[in-house]
Design goal:
Length: about 325
């Protein structure tokens, strides 16, 4: 009986016209959704480009009021443009996290790692608080997040490939919550973050401006020294991460051709998953940096590993960026 009713419906006058109408309505809804997504992308691009123009103008006003910064702008350092253009991305992590990167051949966001529909933990991370937990993070600088044991250097040339799902900020976004002080504490943290999000890779124009004016040499930024001006304006406190540029990529960052170097302890380097990843990335021997760890306590393990990781990173960057002997 049920089958007969279905057949009757199919033969009923106008049934086909109703089906066509529903299909047309659905198609129109899909097109509208696509237009809305496209409009959202354009609005986002307009916001990011507007932020970049505003931050450049604000910094120019700051530099114009300081004879020292104004002099540097008039006579740019010979290496500022090259360092700003070529400085690779960095990602430092624990040994466990690096094994995950090796297995997936890429970086994945906290939300992606939790899985679809899985709520954030009761103890909210800084990223959950800022609604950035569906991004992966990299610094445009040496390794700056302390007490890690492994890391990656990722070529700046990958940025155009991920530009439509990436943003940059002239500071470590996580530092806004607990470490840095904003000039207007009444402004919501997320609003401050929104005002400083910049387009990728065009944010490097702002990075070059800061390397030119705010530092006696762009190598001072690479070394983690403080700038000679408040950078970015309106943000103080914290450590070098306050003025370290960050790039956030939505959901994941695959590493098929972008890995310049990896930094590992000897114990990690012989792990099967890591060995397979290194083979896939086809890195030359000099780009696989093994730093020794030979301590006797957990605290010494952490200090030794971080010290070795930082030292190897500095040696790699000096060579990659062609640091002059007099710098």
């Amino acid at each position: 009986m049920h089958l007969a009713r279905i057949k009757a419906r199919r033969k009923a006058p106008g049934a086909r016209h109703m089906s066509v109408a529903r299909a047309a309505t659905r198609h129109a809804a899909i097109l509208a959704a696509r237009r809305q997504r496209s409009r959202g992308v354009r609005l986002s691009e307009a916001r990011l480009n507007g932020n970049l123009a505003r931050l450049l103008d604000e910094f120019d006003l700051l530099a114009g009021a300081d004879p020292r910064l104004e002099q540097r702008r008039a006579e740019p350092h010979r290496d500022a443009e090259r360092v700003a253009r070529r400085l690779p991305l960095s990602h430092a992590c624990s040994s466990e996290a690096f094994l995950g990167i090796a297995r997936s051949r890429g970086l994945r966001s906290q939300r992606s790692l939790r899985g679809p529909g899985v709520p954030a933990p009761v103890t909210r991370s800084v990223e959950v608080e800022l609604d950035t937990d569906d991004h992966v993070f990299a610094f445009v600088a040496p390794f700056r997040y302390p007490d890690q044991v492994a890391g990656l250097r990722i070529a700046a040339q990958i940025e155009p490939n991920v530009s439509r799902r990436s943003v940059a900020t002239p500071f470590d976004s996580g530092g806004l919550v607990a470490h840095c002080e904003r000039a207007d504490p009444s402004e919501p943290v997320r609003a401050f973050l929104d005002r400083h999000e910049l387009p990728v890779p065009d944010y490097r124009a702002y990075l070059e401006r800061l390397l030119t004016c705010a530092f006696a040499s762009p190598w001072r930024y690479v070394d983690g020294d403080d700038p000679d001006a408040v950078c970015p304006p309106g943000l103080t406190g914290g450590d070098a991460r306050r003025h370290t540029f960050e790039v956030r990529v939505h959901r994941e960052l695959t590493l098929e051709d972008g890995v310049l170097a990896v930094f590992l302890t000897a114990e990690m380097a012989v792990h099967d998953d890591v060995a397979d990843a290194l083979a896939d990335w086809r890195l030359p021997d000099e780009s696989v940096r093994i730093h020794p760890v030979d301590p006797s306590t957990d605290a010494e393990v952490s200090a030794s590993a971080w010290g070795g990781l930082s030292a190897e990173c500095k040696r790699f960057l000096d060579a990659h960026l062609e640091r002059p002997d007099d710098e």
